[in-house]
UniProtKB/TrEMBL annotation:
It comes from the Bacteria. Its EC number is 2.7.13.3. This is histidine kinase. Residues 41-261 form the Histidine kinase domain. It is found in: Cell membrane. GO terms for biological process: cellular response to phosphate starvation. One of its GO terms (cellular component) is plasma membrane.
């Protein structure tokens, strides 16, 4: 706001230049603020488990020293906290890697059907732990898309893991892929039948560290970074994410990829 006032008062003389400066400055400030918020959030998220570990070390040195049952219990909690920190650091590294190379190398073509099948197979074990069955409706023929297979694997892993973690109560997950015709977008949907997401939260769930219900998300081993990584990767692919949900009836996450024109298929 201040930047705007200063500029406005000088606009008389050299309009173009000042307007340009103003734009630059406010964008730079916005980015600075985002970065500061991000560092504050990340530090807080790392501090919390660290404080808990430090507390248990003290307890193990003192009151719990000669109590094997309490000791085992505290060691387990400390183990969980270190895992939580490791997950967070992995996610932070993923985000920073994505930011360091903002443009995707012109990648090859991949068959999204096979990619999704691979992720489903890799997630079955986790689904089993949540008591969830993964059903899939995938075409027999390949659907080519342009992209990086490792990054896109991460996208579908995150969506399927979320469906297990948050939608697990629904007992099943449906994964489908379709392209109506070769000139239309390719859609891959991961749908669960859990509690869903209230409308007011939907626009915010791809924000970094945003969680609808902090208690549940924490219990569910969340970092709050999963969907922001998904969004980042999809933007690099000219793809986008849409979310539909009716609270109580589950959530559907659809990834929309641009078509690879038949002439460009290889
Ligand atoms: P997290 O690491 O917490 O899972 P995400 O960025 O992947 O972070 O998701 C952000 C939040 O969106 C989650 O904490 C959860 O509240 C909500 N969410 C994501 N997927 C689902 C889903 N399938 N059903 C209900 N809520 C979901």
């Amino acid at each position: 706001e201040r930047a705007y006032r200063v500029v406005a008062s000088r606009i008389g003389n050299e309009t173009g230049l000042f307007v340009l400066l103003f734009k630059d400055q406010s964008e730079a400030r916005r980015i600075d603020r985002m970065r500061a918020d991000f560092i504050a959030n990340a530090s807080h998220e790392l501090r919390t488990p660290l404080a808990s570990i430090a507390g248990f070390i003290e307890t193990l040195r003192g009151p719990a020293r000669d109590d094997p049952v309490a000791r085992e219990n505290f060691l387990q909690i400390m183990h969980n906290q270190t895992q939580r920190m490791a997950r967070l650091i992995d996610d932070l590294l993923s985000l920073s890697r994505l930011e360091m190379k903002p443009y995707l190398k012109p990648g090859g073509q991949i068959d999204v059907v096979r990619l999704v099948e691979g992720v489903i197979e890799a997630t079955r074990h986790l689904a089993g732990e949540y008591g969830v069955v993964i059903e899939s409706t995938l075409p027999d023929a390949p659907i080519p898309i342009a992209g990086n297979p490792d990054e896109l694997t991460q996208v579908f892993e995150n969506l399927l893991e979320n469906a297990c973690k948050y939608g697990g109560a629904g007992g099943r997950i449906q994964v489908s892929a379709e392209q109506k015709n070769p000139l239309e977008e390719v859609r891959v949907t991961v749908r669960d039948f859990g509690p869903g997401i209230a409308e007011e939260h939907i626009p915010r769930i791809t924000e970094r560290f945003y969680r609808v219900d902090v208690e549940t998300s924490r219990a569910q081993k969340g970092t709050g970074l999963g969907l922001s990584i998904v969004k980042h990767i999809l933007t690099r692919h000219d793809a986008r994410l849409s979310v539909r949900s009716k609270p109580g009836e589950g959530a559907a996450f659809t990834v929309h990829f641009p078509p690879v024109p038949p002439a460009a298929r290889g």
